[in-house]
Amino acid sequence: MRILILGAGQVGSSVAASLAGEANDITIVDSNPDALRHLQEHFDLRTLTGFASHPDVLRRAGAEHADMLLAVTNSDETNMIACQVAFHLFETPTRIARVRARSYLSQQTLFEPGCLAIDELISPEQEVTNHIERIIEYPGTLQVLEFADGIVLMVAVRAYHGGPLVGHALRTLSDHLPTVDARVAAIYRRGRAIIPNGDTVIEADDEVFFVAAREDIGNVLGELRNRESRVRTVMLAGGGNIGRRLAQALEPSYRVKLIERSDKVVARLSEELDRTVVLRGDAADEDLLLEENIDRTDVFCAVTNDDQANILSAMLAKRLGAGKVMSLINRGVYADLVQGNSIDIAFSPAQTTIGTLLARVRRGDVVAVHSLRRGAAEAIEAIAHGTRHTSRVVGRQVDAIDLPPDTTITTLVRDGEVIMAHHDTVIEEDDHVILFLLDKRRVPDVEQLFQITTEMHYPP
After folding, report:
1. What's CA 85's distance to the chain center, in Å?
2. What are the two backbone dihedrals, phi and then psi, of residue 413, each rounded to the nearest 5 degrees?
3. Which helix (H) or strand (E) holds 325?
4. What is the DSSP letter of 204?
5. Which end of the chain is more exposed for a tag (fewer CB within 10 A), N or C?
6. CATH number given to 233-349
7. What's the CATH number for 362-449?
8. Which stretch of DSSP H or E encloses residue 223?
9. In terms of CATH architecture, what is 140-224?
10. Could you give phi then psi for residue 222, rounded to 5 degrees?
11. pLDDT tens digits for the chain (460 residues)?
């Protein structure tokens, strides 16, 4: 696929890095030649220095031949205009734009067909907000991923000493939870991936990815770790776009405090937020944290624009007794250093957003993609089409499907019903099939599985 990316910031560069290794023809445009030089040195792609929405720049970048345009610069206006120009001058088939300003997003008619020529909106800030909300809703989780419009959840959790299933084979899960159907999709042990089977024994500190219907997640969590109390108090560091969105989303259900250094931002947030306590100060100020009862805070989340400030304040909050600490970290090398040690969960806007973009790029009817383990693994939801004569999956048992190595079919959703995939489960047309890929390099093979052909290549 020929993909034109506008903007070489965190989101644009992360998307380019992910897609460049998948036999895509990538061109990335930015006005900063240093950012482009770094990408060109590390990935197989083309770069162009210029202003992203200018017609002459888009022409030189190949907009008239591109299959998709991703406008993810830091300017909403540039992104929207670029989509408009690409549509009217170059007829670029698919156009995706990053738009952050509430003033635009609140006017949904702007993005209806025939208006701004944008096929899909993305908002990294909203994706991060949703990501954190789900983790808070399910205490003890590291990630909570939604499939089939939220009917199915895939949850990552670290198995702790004392969990009922720790030290036992996975086949005994049904003994502990006879009325719950769940499936362990993958296990990461000391950084090494394991495709589990019934004889696999869960060890303390394993990072376990399991899949279940939304209503069953709480029961399965209780088998892997000690049950944690419901979150009641949350403290946020940073009152920018993400901090404000988070406070607005959380304040109806939790007691929320938000710390912000800027007098101007504090004044604005005090007017915009209804129940959140907005504090003027430095989130890395030990006296302030102690004064605000950090030791009785269930979740501390640092979401300023400064990675180092986020890391420092989260580490301090953890040392002072906060229950769980989370930090927004854009640079992957920082996240790898701190997550699981001094900070419980590290996340980045780019990584939480990339799945939305990948779902558009994937061939076949792929409706959801989640990038995992810093892009090394993926969880995919694909819809099975065709018949036994035209499909490699429809009408076949799971164990008869030629799956790529290190790939598992975990779950099906059929007419709203959640079905855990076993070796003899037969896939039917229009099933939503959820797969876990330990190695994202196998994605093209999975895409091919879900493409149909008009020829009868397969036995009846």
Report:
1. 29
2. -120, 120
3. strand 324-328
4. T
5. C
6. 3.40.50.720
7. 3.30.70.1450
8. helix 217-224
9. 2-Layer Sandwich (3.30)
10. -65, -20
11. 899 999 998 888 888 887 876 777 899 999 999 989 988 888 889 999 999 999 999 999 999 999 999 999 999 999 999 999 999 999 999 999 998 887 888 777 888 777 888 988 888 888 889 999 999 998 888 889 999 989 999 999 888 877 777 888 888 887 777 778 888 999 999 888 888 888 899 898 898 999 999 988 888 887 766 666 789 999 999 999 899 999 999 999 999 999 999 999 999 999 999 999 999 999 999 999 999 999 999 999 999 989 899 999 999 999 999 999 999 987 766 666 666 667 888 888 877 887 777 777 776 688 888 888 766 788 999 999 988 889 999 999 999 999 999 899 999 999 999 999 989 999 999 999 999 999 888 888 888 888 887 655 555 5
Burial of 274 (0-12, 13-18, 19+ CB in 10 A): exposed
Other C-beta atoms closer than 10 Å to the C-beta of 55 total 14
CA 308 to chain CA centroid, nearest Å = 22
Q: What's the CA gap between 66 and 76, in Å, rounded?
A: 21
How far apart are the C-alpha atoms of 392 and 233, rounded to whole Å? 50
* 378: β partners: 371, 437
Residues of the chain with CATH 3.40.50.720: 2-122, 233-349
| Residue 147 falls in which region: left (phi positive, over 0), alpha (psi -120 to 50) or beta | beta
Q: Which residue has the tokens 């009917």?
A: 151
- Spell out a b/e string for 28-52, using b for 16 or more CB atoms within 10 Å of the CB, else e: bbbeeeebbeebeeebebebbebeb
What are the Cα distances from residue 273, in Å, to 158, 248, 258, 291?
A: 34, 6, 10, 22
C-alpha–C-alpha distance, residues 455 and 237, integer Å = 58
Find, among 372, 321, 381, 314, the residue nearest to 345 by Cα.
Answer: 314
Element spanning 383, H or E: strand 377-383
DSSP string, 134-185: HHHHSTTEEEEEEEGGGTEEEEEEE--TT-TTTTSBGGGHHHH-TT--EEEE
CA dist 154 and 460 (Å) reads: 34
